[in-house]
Amino acid sequence: MPNLIHRPRRLRRTDTIRRMVRENHVTADDLLYPMFVTMESESREIPSMPGVFRYTLDDLCRTVEKFPAMGLPAIMLFGIPAEKDEVGSGGYAEDGIVPQAIRKLRRVVGDSMLIVPDVCLCEYTSHGHCGVIRDGHVDNDPTLDLLSRTAVCYAEAGADVIAPSDMMDGRIGALRAGLDGAGFSHLPIMAYSAKYASGFYGPFREAADSTPQFGDRRAYQMDPPNRREALREMELDVAEGADILMVKPGLAYLDILRDARERFDLPLAIYNVSGEYSMVKAAARNGWIDEARVVGETLTAFKRAGADIILTYHAVDYLHWMHSSG
Ligand code: PBG
Questions:
Q1: For residues 88 and 122, what is the distance between their CA atoms, to the nearest angstrom?
Q2: 3-state SS assignment for residue 242
Q3: What are the beta bridge partners of residue 196?
Q4: Helices 254-263 & 291-305 angle (0-180, nearest 10)
Q5: Least enclosed by CB within 10 Å: which of 44, 65, 107, 268?
Q6: Residue 310 burial (CB count, 10 A)
Q7: Which residues are marked as active site?
Q8: What CATH number does the domain located at 22-325 have?
Q9: Residue 277's CB: how many other CB atoms inside 10 A?
Q10: Terminal CA-to-CA distance of the chain, rounded, Å?
């Protein structure tokens, strides 16, 4: 028999001792639940994202009403407008779908939840790109002005945090200036800082009806092989006044989240995106994986890598599982 001094298994023998030495936990406080709201007359489940809906305003309110009791602290909002145009004017219209939803939700949840609108033009442009087009390319600087108008419009409707996802250069500074100038210097910006041009957004584009009609987003979203560049994007966002930094997508980019954790003291968010959700749902429906277990493991990986905030379509499922397993 070997005379072992160190036996790590001693601390794994029972559930009780495992609980006591556990290093990371995912609680309701960590979760931000993304939702879709539409001008269409009926709510509709998104085929590639079972359990995720494009909600009408009324159904959105009925659904969100139950969240404070579950302890969910925040939702993110994406809007699908009735009509799209070249310059995405549905995004910054005062009576647009997202400002309407914010106003209505505020009456339902009061201050018990944060309402966090995603700021981008791609759901509102006829061509599906995240900015205005000139000579076949997304034109950075004129887009900043429209994004800033969108942010102010959402702030006026009562948003709690502004979350720009477009990846234009200089947008954090532009939004900060726009918000401050309109009397919203107290509103935080959660910047999609390291957002990669990813195949994992496929189901979202079906959900938001925002697939680019020509080309792709590689000329503004980041190139997946790059690591140093992600830190540079984050440095710039910090310098321009971001309050929270985000890495997106999640699982394939955990190294970037870890790097960010080591470099920055700001809160960090990670987006467990649509494709990651769809893959889990599909495998679970086939009986190939234990969904609750895999989701728990995934969300914990984000915490372990350094996330403070996890954006996930599994948020509501996760809270149900947490409560039912006592
Ligand atoms: C809008 C936006 C996208 C996502 C969040 N904000 C789509 C995109 O950039 O193509 C993706 C979210 C997901 O896949 O869950 N720019």
A1: 7
A2: coil
A3: 222
A4: 30
A5: 107
A6: 24
A7: 195, 248
A8: 3.20.20.70
A9: 26
A10: 41
Instruction: Tell me phi and psi for residue 42, to 5 degrees.
Output: -135, 150
| Under 8 Å between Cβ of 321 and 296 | yes
Contact 277, 313 (CB under 8 A): yes
Question: CB under 8 Å to 140, separation ≥6 — which residues?
Answer: 131, 168, 169, 170
What number does the ligand 1 atom closest to the CA of 204 have? Answer: 14
Ligand 1 atom 8 nearest Cα: 201
β-strand pairing of 44-46 with 49-55: antiparallel
pLDDT at residue 147 in the model: 98
For tokens 């419009």, the residue is: 153
Angstrom distance (rounded) from CA 138 to CA 151: 19
Report which protein residue has its CA nearest ligand 1's atom 12: 273
- Give distance in angstroms: CA of 20 to centre of ligand 1: 38
> Cα separation of 29 and 137, whole Å?
40
What pLDDT sits at residue 1?
A: 83
Q: Which two tokens stand for residue 242?
A: 């971001």
Task: Give the integer Cα–Cα distance in Å for 161 and 104.
Answer: 17
Give me the phi and psi of 205, to 5 degrees please.
-70, -30
Task: Specify the pTM.
Answer: 0.97
What is the Å distance from ligand 1's center to 260 Cα?
21
Q: What is the pLDDT of residue 325?
A: 77
CA distances from 254 to 81, 205, 263, 305, 324 (A): 33, 23, 14, 6, 29
Distance CA 127, CA 87 (A): 9
Record the tokens describing residue 245, joined without a space: 């930094």
Listed residue (310, 246, 326) closest to 26, CA to CA: 310
Q: What is the structure's pLDDT at 284?
A: 98
What residues of the chain score a pLDDT lower than 50?
Answer: none
Instruction: Supply 234's token pair.
Output: 């984050």
**pLDDT value at residue 51:** 98
Closest alpha carbon to 264 in 284, 292, 237:
237
Cα(1) to ligand 1 centroid in Å equals 57
Q: Give the containing element (helix H, strand E) for 198.
A: none
